[in-house]
């Protein structure tokens, strides 16, 4: 037998003989008869071209070469078991790498909770987050550069599936010294007369369309003084006195000194959905495990009002941050 013919079986048999000290005891441990075990050891010595065991009346002891091979054989058997276990883990969705598409304010709310929960139950999985707008996420999903995406709105795509993972409430962000800052709630009519810092239609048309729809339904033409790409910039400009802005519930986690956050009046309220998108028919265990964790953390929505329960508790409460 050549070296190429050496199998894991030969290594297991040799290790058992060294550890049991006799062929008879090794055969009992391996649940094989002694003659086949002896033949396997002879084949191994023939393939390696060295004597591995000294046979005597007392049993079998490893030679100098046998001691070296014993250590290497144990390492190889350990690596083989590790490879098998890691393969099983990958097949169960417990090992590997998962690329996730995220955007702006979503990293302030639901996504950290989902990521933290997934890491707790899947510590061997590497999660990599990519900042991408809606169109970028759709493209990356089709090119398999990401497995799951999170964004505000997704159009129906034949090859992709999306689902609502969180429904958010809208808040008005004002300078702390603004005349309206002490109010418990605000109406669209009141803020429509103020300079507003809102968002352009590119790259997230659905989000600003939803905001403008709120105004148009009440025949209000908002005074848009600035357009910025994200809520972080919007809240920063509010703190600098450029005007008021609208943010989602997750945007309220931006605690910027010199600003307060006041909920919109219930009659004027609109909800904004955070959606999770993935490839249709993707049966990767890793992806399925992640989707299951995200769904388990989906926040309940009050059907009648269309407002999240956690948000209802916030209505009537002003979130303030003193000037630093």
TrEMBL record:
Transcription: present as a keyword of the record? Answer: yes
User: Which keywords label this protein?
Assistant: DNA-binding, Transcription, Transcription regulation
Q: What Gene Ontology molecular-function terms does this entry list?
A: DNA binding; DNA-binding transcription factor activity
Q: Sorted alphabetically, which Pfam families does this protein's record hold?
A: HTH_1, LysR_substrate
| HTH lysR-type domain boundaries | 6-63
**Which Gene Ontology cellular component terms are annotated?**
protein-DNA complex
Source domain of life: Bacteria
Keyword Transcription regulation present in the record's keywords: the answer is yes
InterPro entries noted in UniProt: LysR_HTH_N (IPR000847), LysR_subst-bd (IPR005119), WH-like_DNA-bd_sf (IPR036388), WH_DNA-bd_sf (IPR036390)
Query: Which family does the similarity line name?
Result: Belongs to the LysR transcriptional regulatory family.
In its UniProt entry, what is this protein called? LysR family transcriptional regulator
